[in-house]
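Input/output pair, single chain:
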Amino acid sequence: MPSPTLIRKRLNELELRSRLRARPRVQGRVLAPAGAFRRLPRAAGLYFPFYHDVLPEYATDLRRHLLTFRRHGELVSWDEALGILAGRRPMHGPVFCLSFDDGHATWRDVVTPVLHEIGVPAMFFVTTDLIGRPGNLTWSDCRAMAAAGFDFGSHTVTHQRLADQDDRAAAHELIDSKHEIEDELGSEIRDFAAPYGHPAVDYGRRDVEIARGAGYRSFASTLRPAIHAGDSPLAINRQGLHPAWPLWAVRTRIHD
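Output:
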C-alpha cells in the first residue's frame, strides 16, 4: 500500500490539476515556462498522448498538436503501437499513439472530424456508466465511431480509483466494463486505461493481474516516459494533454 504521505501528495496534486483544468489556457501558460528547457522528441521512442473532452473552441488547437506530432514522427494506431512493443515492426524515431478518455459527446462532434480530416487513428477509452448521460456519447454514437475505424477500450464502469476498491469491486470495474462494451459494440475489448493512472497511488499489481486474467492485452498508466520495444504492454505510459495548451506546455509532458 502507498504511504499516507504519498497519498496526500497525490490527492493535493489532483486537486490543483482539477482547478487548473477548468481554465486550460491558464493551465497551459503556467506549464509553458518549464517547456522552454525541453524539446519535442527526436530520438526513437513510443509516446501515448491522450486527451479528454475537446470543446469546439479547441478544435484548431487539437489539430495543431497532432500536426506537430506528425512533423516529428509517425502517428500510429494502438495495434501498431503494440506491434512496436512486441518487436514486430521497427521504430526509427519518435512514434505517437493517440487516445481519449471517458466518453464525451465532443468525440463525435469535434474530435472524429479532426481525426478524419488529417488521417489520424485513435483509441477511445470508455467509462461505461457515463455513456448515455447528458453531455456524453450514446452507445449508438460509439458503434458509429467503431464502424468508422476507431478503436475502443475500457476505462472502468464508474471511473473510481482502483486502489480504493476491494477485490470484488475492482474486478467489477475491469471485467464488467469490458463485457458491456463488447456487448454494445459487438467486438472484443482488449485494452484498458486506469482512471487517474499512477501506479503508486491509483492502482496496483492486483489490478494489472485482474486485467490480465480478464483477457486484456494492454494496461495503460499516466506515467510519462517514452517506452520502447520489449517493454510490457501491461505497463504503457500515457502523457495527459489538453488541446488548449501551447506547444511549450506540451513539451513538459512529451520530450526527449
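The chain has two domains: 1-38, 43-244. Strands lie at 45-47, 49-51, 74-76, 94-97, 99-102, 123-126, 151-154, 191-193, 218-220, 239-240.
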